[in-house]
Specification:
Layout lengths: L4 E9 L2 E6 L2 E7 L1 H11 L4 E5 L2 H4 L5 H9 L5 E4 L5 H9 L4 E4 L1 H5 L2 H10 L4 E11 L5 E7 L4 E6 H11 L3 E6 L11 H10 L4 E4 L5 H9 L5 E4 L1 H4 L5 H10 L7
Parallel strand pairs: 1-4, 1-12, 4-5, 5-6, 6-7, 7-10, 10-11, 11-12
Antiparallel strand pairs: 1-2, 2-3, 7-8, 8-9
Length: about 260
């Protein structure tokens, strides 16, 4: 049986967890280590630590903050933000991370994916993909991939980029809908399904969770392998256990 995962996300800026809407309008929601320990106790399967301004500021995620977070939990930690080289990854793993997530660096230098997979193992390399929807005059949709924390359009169509990163050795894709991010209106399951049907590696759906049904739909309609959420958990709308019990009742295999 393939267990489906529920993953809280810590968006970190200046050493604090923040959350916004559509990649902006950020609010402070706490200390990373404290939030991480809470989610570990709640039953999270993994945890994402994303330094949201690292790429834009030209630096990697802060190892000391990562180390403190790792010491507070017993579950795997995925770290992203400003990771641009094998040396950066080595430092992040040395700080205790289980996996790294790369975004902008993979777009700038796609060969970094294959190099990292070769050195650290494919299962430890996640490529984060931030995608924005465009609707054509005929009503058709496509999604463009963005870099630098959603600031820079790349020209890559999301399905083509997903196939590229899979071919280079990515072990998972963390797929964020920029349009749905923080809105609590539901995941973009058209986007999730498109990517899930293009590549055979796990897809972590991100952006838009607001109701219990949204998690179910991400798995059943979006064909995701894991769901990531922030606002809904940070502001205690639902607990992780509530989400997992609901998913179990919907026939979706989760670890309670």
């Amino acid at each position: 049986m393939s267990w489906k995962r529920v993953i809280p996300c810590l968006d970190v800026q200046n050493g604090r967890v923040v959350k916004g809407v559509n990649f902006g309008d950020l609010r402070d929601v706490g200390d990373p280590a404290e939030q991480a320990a809470f989610y570990d106790r709640e039953g999270a399967d993994e945890l994402v630590f994303l330094d949201i301004t690292a790429s834009h500021e030209g630096r990697r995620a802060l190892p000391e903050s990562i180390r403190q977070t790792v010491q507070a939990i017993s579950i795997p930690l995925i770290v992203g933000g400003g990771i641009g080289s094998l040396e950066d990854m080595e430092a992040i793993f040395a700080a205790g991370a289980s996996k790294v997530s790369i975004n902008t660096a993979a777009l700038v230098n796609p060969d970094l994916i294959s190099q990292a997979a070769g050195v650290f193992g494919r299962e430890r390399i996640i490529v984060a993909v931030d995608a924005k929807r465009t609707v054509g005059p005929d009503g058709s949709c496509h999604w463009e991939v963005y870099a630098r924390g959603g600031r820079t359009a790349t020209g890559w169509e999301v399905g083509d980029w997903a196939e590229k990163v899979y071919s280079l050795g990515a072990g998972e894709i963390l797929l964020t809908s920029m349009d749905s991010d923080g809105t609590r209106d539901g995941y973009d399951n058209e986007l999730n399904r498109l990517v899930a049907e293009r590549v055979p590696i796990p897809i972590i759906a991100s952006g838009g969770a607001g109701e219990l049904e949204h998690f179910r739909d991400a798995f059943l309609s979006g064909k995701a392998d894991a769901v990531l959420a922030a606002s809904l958990f940070h502001f205690r709308t639902y607990s992780i256990r509530e989400v997992k019990e609901y998913l179990q009742g919907a026939g979706i295999p989760v670890r309670l």
